Amino acid sequence: MNELSVKIGFIGAGNMASALINGLVNSNHDPKKIIASSPEEEHLLKLSSGLGIKTTQDNLSVVKTSDIVILAIKPNIIEAVLSEIKEEVKKKDILILSIAAGVKIAKIESILGNTTRIFRAMPNTPASIMMGVTAISGNKSASSEDREKAKLLFECVGKVTEVKEDEIDIFTALIGSGPAYVFYLIESLLSSSSKFSLPEEEKVKLISSMIEGAAKLVSISEDSPEILRNKVTSPGGVTQKAIEEFEKHKLKQIIEKSMESAEKRSIELGK
User: Fold this and answer.
1) CA atoms of 162 and 129, how far apart (whole Å)
2) 79-108: buried (b, 16+ CB within 10 Å) or exposed (e) per residue?
3) pLDDT of residue 1
4) What is the pLDDT of residue 4?
5) Which residues contact 116 (CB under 8 A, 6 or more apart)?
6) How much is the pLDDT for 102?
7) Topology of 8-163 in CATH?
8) Where are the beta strands (DSSP E) in 155-205?
9) Which of 216, 211, 218 is nearest to 184 (CA)?
10) Stated pTM of the model
11) H or E segment at 78?
């Protein structure tokens, strides 16, 4: 089955679902073959009018009309939603992809049954511009064909990597939430540039281009990030002074602690 011919349903129409739907439509997936459900009429109207997809407030309608169902809902309502759709899922034997943070495959299996084909996935919001990064992990019932479908779907919106399920929480902390850390860095650089007389809009463009260029350099260079940093950091120079401040305030340790806290929260959300 070609990835662009399958009918894809979203239960949930929040930020991540919207990012994925936007990415799929921009990747030439037929919007008429995408349906999303949500109790929030405003979210649905935005998706139907802006992207041309089908929408409904009925979760069962999504299951009945889809080949693949993506659970894009908050972890605290996953049990209620799964209980609502379980009979229809079993009837159709459809592929389930869950992007509910922290929710383990075993929890989904406990309601839908362990013969249901399930993948747990964690994308990030740059999926909306087809530059997302997604980790996937499947259960024992998922076939190699299911794995290809899951990969192809998320490849429509960026890069995909398959990981062990017990690594998804750290992936969530590092990559799933990662764009927010970059946005926070940009905010911080902006707030420290008040003496720079350029308009803020121009400063945002310059900082964004700098980050994009640095990231590209890391991705294509044979040198490690540390070596690349050292090449910019001349002894006694401007960059070294900034790095010394980072080290003085133990920035690396702060980041490591932040990752641990984020991973712990991802695990807690799935309980």
Assistant:
1) 21
2) eebbebbbebbeeeebbbbbbbbbbbbebb
3) 42
4) 53
5) 89, 90, 93, 96, 108, 109, 139, 141
6) 86
7) Rossmann fold (3.40.50)
8) 158-162
9) 211
10) 0.85
11) helix 78-92
Compute the half-sphere exposure of residue 110: CA atoms within 13 Å on the CB side of its CA.
8
Distance separating alpha carbons of residues 26 and 73, to the nearest angstrom = 23
* Residue 29 neighbours by CB under 8 Å, 6+ apart: 3, 4, 8, 156
Q: Are 54 and 7 in contact (CB under 8 A)?
A: no
Q: How far apart are CA 182 and CA 226, in angstroms?
A: 18
With both helix axes pointing from N to C terminus, report the angle between 200-220 and 178-191 in degrees, rounded to the nearest 10: 130
Beta partners for residue 137, in sequence order: 120
Domain ranges of the chain: 8-163, 176-269
| 56, 35 contact by CB (below 8 A) | yes
Give the per-residue pLDDT at 2.
47
What number of other Cβ atoms are within 10 A of residue 182's Cβ?
13
Rounded distance between C-alpha atoms, residue 36 and residue 27, angstroms:
18
**β-strand pairing of 68-71 with 95-98:** parallel
What homologous superfamily is domain 176-269 in, according to CATH? ProC C-terminal domain-like (1.10.3730.10)
Edge-first strand order for the sheet with 34-37 is: 54-56, 34-37, 8-11, 68-71, 95-98, 118-122, 132-138, 158-162
Low-confidence ranges of the chain (pLDDT < 70): 1-4
